[in-house]
């Protein structure tokens, strides 16, 4: 039997407890073989993402639920550790509605856009920049000083003009200051962007977070744009849960928008995917942020999780029919298929 006294020269002080542990007490419910397979499967995806830029649109239930928020922050930190450059673009609809109710201001939408009077715009600024943004930055910075809060008005990160007089201070993006965001990423920071824009008229504009994410992804030449939502992805028929689409091309996405073949709530997300892809983004993903560790499942496993929209037919074929040499060869081919293939128009 081991003695409880410390060994000569040991820094440990006798405590009356043993340090020895049994393997049975540390055994994971997942077998060693399953763990090894998961790590092996993740390797080519990690290789493909390291050094690349992804833009994550963050919102919905994944932002409101505390446990889901912790999961998302942990996933983002892991992606950062493996060398991914990340920009987070967030909304805050639920928090804005709550604040408007507190001030007895109306909550009104037209065509999926929030009607934003000057009074409502002040609340939007207060909530998005002063509350939601700072909470997200603080949540990430619990793991180290890695996140920087950015208002769209900082350094003209997002500049906009009025979209429609009937919507008030709702903006249409005219330009994005990619240099500022890229300088933060070069400093190894994660920009967390609140979607309040600097107005061409000197005021402020409220920007739909999906629209902002698509524009930012195009501006920083992101490899991927990820849209977190509260459903599993894009459905051909939302009433038929077997019609979830796993892969489609940019051309097919544009046809679905043109023919109105999607649920109205998904239109802004799909249009934002199209904006990103036409701007040079390689792939756009729509995934369910209410699924724990959805980002890792989508980005680092073969099966994926949601809907992927491809900018090129070559990329689509690689995902639909894996390369005969296997996943690793597919990931290698992915790095060059964007060079010789024009985006689908």
Strand-helix topology:
Blueprint: H1 23-26, H2 32-49, E1 53-58, H3 61-64, H4 66-81, E2 85-90, H5 93-102, E3 109-110, E4 113-114, H6 118-141, E5 147-151, E6 158-162, E7 171-176, H7 178-186, E8 190-194, E9 196-199, E10 204-206, H8 209-219, E11 224-229, E12 247-249, H9 250-259, H10 267-278, E13 283-288, H11 294-300, E14 307-310, H12 313-320, H13 327-337
Parallel strand pairs: 1-2, 1-11, 2-8, 5-8, 6-9, 11-13, 12-14
Antiparallel strand pairs: 3-4, 6-7, 9-10, 13-14
Helix pairs in contact: 2-13, 5-6, 8-10, 9-10, 12-13
Q: Could you provide a short overview of the structure?
A:
With 345 residues, this protein is of the alpha/beta class. Helix content is 42%, strand content 18%.
Strand count, sense and barrel status of the largest sheet are: 8 strands, mixed
In the sheet with the most strands, the strands line up as 5-8-2-1-11-13-14-12
Q: How would you spell out the order of helices and strands?
A: HHEHHEHEEHEEEHEEEHEEHHEHEHH
**What fraction strand?**
15-25%
């Amino acid at each position: 039997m081991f003695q409880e006294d410390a060994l000569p020269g040991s820094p440990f002080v006798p405590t009356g407890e043993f340090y020895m542990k049994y393997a049975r007490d540390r055994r994971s419910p997942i077998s060693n073989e399953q763990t090894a397979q998961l790590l092996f499967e993740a390797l080519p995806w990690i290789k493909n993402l390291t050094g690349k830029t992804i833009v994550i649109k963050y919102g919905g239930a994944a932002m409101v639920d505390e446990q889901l928020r912790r999961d998302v922050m942990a996933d983002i930190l892991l992606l950062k550790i493996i060398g991914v450059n990340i920009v987070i673009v967030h909304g805050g609809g639920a928090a804005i509605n709550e604040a408007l109710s507190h001030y007895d201001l109306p909550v009104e939408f037209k065509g999926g856009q929030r009607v934003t009077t000057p009074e409502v715009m002040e609340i939007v600024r207060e909530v998005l920049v002063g509350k939601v943004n700072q909470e997200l930055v603080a949540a990430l910075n619990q793991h180290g000083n890695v996140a920087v809060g950015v208002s769209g008005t900082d350094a003209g990160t997002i500049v906009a003009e009025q979209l429609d007089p009937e919507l008030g201070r709702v903006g249409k993006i005219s330009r994005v200051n990619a240099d500022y965001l890229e300088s933060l990423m070069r400093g190894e920071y994660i920009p967390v962007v609140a979607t309040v824009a600097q107005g061409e008229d000197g005021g402020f504009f409220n920007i739909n977070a999906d629209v902002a994410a698509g524009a930012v992804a195009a501006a920083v030449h992101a490899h991927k744009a990820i849209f977190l939502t509260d459903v599993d992805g894009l459905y051909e028929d939302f009433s038929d849960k077997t019609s979830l689409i796993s892969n489609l091309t940019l051309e097919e996405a544009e046809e679905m928008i043109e023919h109105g073949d999607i649920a109205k709530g998904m239109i802004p997300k799909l249009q934002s995917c199209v904006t990103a892809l036409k701007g040079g983004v390689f792939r756009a993903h729509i995934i369910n942020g209410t699924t724990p560790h959805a980002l890792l499942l989508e980005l680092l496993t073969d099966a994926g999780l949601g809907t992927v929209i491809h900018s090129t037919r070559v990329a689509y074929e690689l995902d639909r029919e894996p390369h005969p040499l296997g996943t690793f060869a597919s990931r290698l081919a992915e790095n060059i298929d964007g060079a010789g293939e024009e985006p689908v128009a």
